[in-house]
Amino acid sequence: MYLFDGRSFAALLFDMDGTVLNSLEATERVWARWAARHGLDARSVVRAAHGQRAVDSLSRLNIPGMDVMAENAEVTRMELEDMEGVRAISGVSEFLGSLPERGWAIVTSAPRALAERRLAAAGLEAPAALITAEDVATGKPDPSGYRLAARRLGASAADCVVFEDAVAGIKAGEAAGSKVIVITATHTEPLPTTHPTFHTFEGLRTDVIGNRLKIAHRP
Q1: How many C-beta atoms lie closer than 10 Å to residue 164's C-beta?
Q2: Annotated active-site positions, please?
Q3: Cβ pair 57, 109 in contact under 8 A
Q4: Whole-prediction pTM
């Protein structure tokens, strides 16, 4: 069964953490350690950090006297050192492997060094178009990252499908004018959304027709 009434698209744009790979265990360990150092509630800090650039999450905590850029560098250092448990979402390797080189991109809130290391730890190759935290002035839910990825692929964001797992990323995809598919592999609670939702990439496939992509799901 084709999704979106059989419509074809120019490209597919993927979030990274929680969408193509599961880094939840490592992320929670790092942010919990950081929160403990500052006497903050770890659960609240982890929840606030999900799906957004670390620098944006730290800024929103609004801690008096905190050097946001220094703390951002420290969190990134800690994340680079912790790859334990990072793994690919089920079915994603085959799904990405079926796509043409210029037919997909990753748009992540992670810095480039961390993105490349996590992709390698999960056994996934980085795409030619990899948009990271350094590439945009404003992170998700701002649509800048998805719009930039589409441009690098020679497409309009409105002619792309965004794969996301987090509310901030879903809002970014919507604001970019893209269709959105939600992946819930790392979710423990239902995510209210009207977008097509799948637990993993198992059963999903992409048919390449000329230079256009059609997404299908086989239950």
Answers
A1: 29
A2: 15, 17
A3: no
A4: 0.88
